[in-house]
Amino acid sequence: MRGRACELALALIPLIALLASPLARPALSAYDGPLYFDGHRAYDCLRELCSKFKRRVVGSGADAAAGLWVAERLRELGYEVHTQNFTARGFGGFVSAMNVYAVKRGEVSRYVVLMAHRDVVPSTVEGANDNGAGVAILLELARVLANRSTRLSIIFLCTDAEETGLHGARHFVRSFPEASRIVCAINIDMCGWRGARGIALFAYYSPPAFSDASVLLLALSASTPECPVAVDLMDQVMARLSLIYVGTDSMPFVAAGVPAVGVTDDPTYPYWHTPEDTVDKVSPERLKAVGRFLERLVLTIDGMGGLPRLGTRYLASNWVYLPEPLVRGVSLAVLALAVFTVL
User: Fold this and answer.
1) Maximum separation of any 2 CA atoms in the chain, in Å
2) What is the CATH number of the domain that holds 257?
3) Which end of the chain has a smaller Cβ tally under 10 Å, C or N?
4) Residue-range definition of the domain harbouring residue 157
């Protein structure tokens, strides 16, 4: 009897570690200073994009013209603009595509990448939330950060050919000459739906490759009542088992070993890839909530001068952070309890 009691006690040790695991979550404080993102400015930008450049399918004239429009908006803010021309898979063969980006120089040449794709699928007309809203948020962030002193440099990247396989993001990761100096990447995709309750974060890639946990935990620290952040623990488990795949432009950065996170509406946008994805589904208030969350997150990362390295083997949610030793311990505890129950 005493022997079995000892066995049970040993089996419970990892579970006790699980209960204590929130204490293992690093204490990361978000920037709490003034924020200037203007949701109405972003909404005006969205309306102009969606009215002038409908059916922005990669390789189309509308897509190319939208890219030039983004470049001009960045120039108006005082940025030097760069383009990357490349060939990508389209919906009917290979086509010409173009990334557009600008760099805000900080004190050091280490980079935070903010990005949003502008292309749409053929079944979409305006592509308002997917992903005109992301482009509008990107451009408004470029405005509010243009004259702000920062330690880190910031890249504002408008990618192309996301809808056919994340080709713009892949091309940027491969061809940007200082890719090794990228601190982290944040992707903005479908973030303006007026019916959203918050935002969901994705920090993994399939087959299973996870971002360093730091960018995910910092994003959680920047959560507010106006823009609550959700991290799904079960999605991470399924991703580690290669049972689900989420296609978004942060993924090529994760695959290259760059800490990266994708930001999107929670719950999932119901008009995704349909003709009903129109400007009226987006609101200035929603754009403001997401934009200020992202402004806070970028300034948090900048205030830290980068990101701590916490590792890529973990499970995390809003309430718990399990680094690899605890994940292994929980697995062993479950196995031990199963054996104990059978015996």
Assistant:
1) 78
2) 3.40.630.10
3) N
4) 27-319
